[in-house]
Amino acid sequence: MSSTLFLLTILFSSALGNQGGSSAKYPLVVSTWPFKEAVRAAWRAVHNNNASAVDAVVEGCSACEELRCDGTVGAGGSPDENGETTIDAMIMNGVTMEVGAVAAMRYVRDGIRAAQLVMLYTQHTMLVGEKASTFAISMGLPGPTNLSSAESLEKWTKWKEDKCQPNFRKNVFPADSCGPYYPEDAVDSSKMTCSMVNMVDPNESGSFVDRHNHDTIAMAVIDNKGHIAAGTSTNGATFKIPGRVGDGPIAGSSAYADTEVGACGATGDGDIMMRFLPCYQVVESMRLGMQPKLAAEDAISRITRKFPNFIGAVFAINKDGVHAGACHGWTFQYSVRSPGMDDVEVFTVLP
């Protein structure tokens, strides 16, 4: 390769990659959104205390749970249709490819720590519902405890007063009330009232997904050994149908890590994202040689071709610490701390 061509290759790769300009590869912490305290907690663990990537992710996500980041992480936020808050979380070890996850977990506040316990002390990948809570408590986590808060119950009460609008129901009667609901095609048209005839189709109301009701902390860490881990924590979509599980605890959707390649984290409309496994796609694209920026953009474009109104985002990092993001439907921000930074830096990605 000529020196000129080599120089052009390096410049092109730099343009697609690390916007932070750090010369050191790791340790590195990356998180969705300006969750600076979560990134600082992970950084203290991996940089100051030489913790493993897995333990650093747990510390970072746990900090976000305690702070109730955006009201969509940890206890006390995102009530479901019954006014209850439940927790989804996942941790992935990019060295062993082990995964631990909990979904629709009740009565236990520590989502990410419960997910780690699943990984450490079972041969399973995911535990769900009240049985996940029983397991977590048996392994030493505090509980049972009420995961609702004054704020979440107030939000739920107001939503009920507004006839439970908007919600995630579709093709049901009655569409403008709090139920009980019946399948649209099961309703006898001869018994429909005037108000039923004039109801607005719930599918015409549009999405009510935004950062403050559909958010996740997704975090990836490269530790001092170059090992990579990723994890997530969320209390799910606000006013979700009880029992709903989004992409938060799904490896390959909300997050994915492979020490040989890199990692990815995602946030947004999990019901759509989990159909595409965008973080698995990002990592596999990087495995084939794509730079993080192109890999992130490609994963998002695969979703938007099928769902043009989709709202979501991903960040991507490769094993060399190069990072980038991509989004659709909103402006996305992700947070980074690397050796060349004095503190956490927030990067903005435009749709």
Automatic annotation (TrEMBL):
GO terms for molecular function: beta-aspartyl-peptidase activity; N4-(beta-N-acetylglucosaminyl)-L-asparaginase activity. One of its GO terms (biological process) is proteolysis. InterPro entries: Ntn_hydrolases_N, Peptidase_T2. Substrate binds at R244, V245, G246, D247, T267, G268, D269, G270. Residues 1-17 form the signal peptide. Transmembrane segments: none annotated. It is an enzyme of class 3 (hydrolase). Keywords: Autocatalytic cleavage, Hydrolase, Protease, Signal. The keyword rRNA-binding does not apply. It holds the Pfam family Asparaginase_2. The record marks D215, T216 as: Cleavage. It catalyses: Cleavage of a beta-linked Asp residue from the N-terminus of a polypeptide. SUPFAM superfamilies: N-terminal nucleophile aminohydrolases (Ntn hydrolases) (SSF56235). Its EC number is 3.4.19.5. The active site is at T216. PANTHER family: L-ASPARAGINASE, N(4)-(BETA-N-ACETYLGLUCOSAMINYL)-L-ASPARAGINASE. Belongs to the Ntn-hydrolase family. Heterotetramer of two alpha and two beta chains arranged as a dimer of alpha/beta heterodimers. This is beta-aspartyl-peptidase. It comes from Cinchona calisaya.
